[in-house]
Automatic annotation (TrEMBL):
It comes from the Bacteria. This is Probable molybdenum cofactor guanylyltransferase. One of its GO terms (molecular function) is GTP binding. Its EC number is 2.7.7.77.
Amino acid sequence: MMKQHNKLNQNDIIGVILAGGLSSRMGHDKASIALSTDDDLDLLGKTCKLLTETGLDVWISGRENKALNLFCFPDAKKGLGPLSGIVRALELSQNRACLILSCDLPFMDQKTINALIECRNQRKQGTVLTIYVQKETGYPEHLAAIYEPESLPLLKESLEKELLKLNRIIPIDKQERIYYNSEDSLPFFNINYPADLEVARRIIRSL
C-alpha cells in the first residue's frame, strides 16, 4: 500500500474517491484525463495525491487501479450512481467517517478539504453529514462532503428503494453546512462535458 502521510492525524476519516461513473456525457473516461501536456497525473491521480497529502487513508470506489497502489472496491450496486459508492465505502469503513470526493474536480485544493475536516470536527451532536453549500443557489456539494457512519442506514434504505438523489436523503437538521460564495466556487468546478474540459484547460493556462 502507498505510504500515507499523517499531517492531520485524522484516523477516524477515510478519503474515498468516486471514480466509477460511466462518463457518458463526456464520451470517454473522465478519470484518465490529463488537463495539460505538462501534467504527469490524470484527474484520478491528482485527486489521490490531494487526499494523500491531506493525511488521510485513501480508497478508490468503482474501479481498480493497480498503478496507484491503493485499496479499490466496487460500488454496492453497479450503475446506480454515486450513492452506491458512498454506501459501499461506509459499509467497509469499520465505523470511520468517509470524506467523499469526486474524481472530476480539477481545482479542488487542500485549503477547501482542510476547512471541511475542521468543520466536521466541530460538528454539533447528531450531525451525520458535513457538506459545502453554494450560498446564492443553495446547491449542496454532496461529492465533496464527509459522511458519518450514522448516515449509513438512511443512505442504504434509499439505495435499496433506488431513490438516488443525494439531496433528498439526509435531513437538513442532521447536516453541518459550510456556505461558500460564487466567487469562491472554483474548487467545485467539475468536468462533465467536453466543453467543461476546455474551460478547465483555459483556466489552467490563465493561472
